[in-house]
Specification:
Blueprint lengths: L1 H13 L3 E5 L2 E5 L5 H9 L7 E7 L1 H10 L3 E8 H9 L3 E8 L12 H5 L6 H19 L2
Length: 143
Amino acid sequence: MELLAKAKTILESEEYTCVAIKGEKTYTSRERGVKPLLDWIEKGIDIKEGFVADKVVGKAAAFLYVLLEVKALYVGVISKPALEVCNRYGIKVEYGDLVESIRNRDNTGFCPMETAVMGIDTPKEAYETIISTREQISKKTNI
C-alpha cells in the first residue's frame, strides 16, 4: 500500500483533486467532481489495479472507480453510499471523514451526481446515468 500513501502525499502537497498511480505512471487532475474519472474512462487510461487518492468521493465516483477497476482508494471525504459500493466491489478504502452524503458545491443541497445514482445498484447503469446527468447539467449552464 505504499503507492496509496504516495498518491495521498501527491494529492495533499500539490493541491490536486485526484491522483492515480499505476506502476511507474502517475495521473493527476485539478478538475472537480466526477470529471477526472470520466476523462480517464473516455480516454482509455488504464488504472486497473492502481492506487488512487481523491479529495471527495460520492456514490457516483465510487461506481466510476469500480469501472476503472482500482485496487485501493484514499479519500478525504467519502459518503456512506460510496463506501458501501467500494466494499461491495472489493476496493480497499482509507478515508478521513465519513459523511451521510455529499453536498453540492454551493452547499445548498446534495451533489447532483450523488442524487442521480442514489437508487442505482450497478456500475454500468450508474455510468449511463452519470453521462445523462452531466449532459442535462451542461445544457442548463450553457443557456
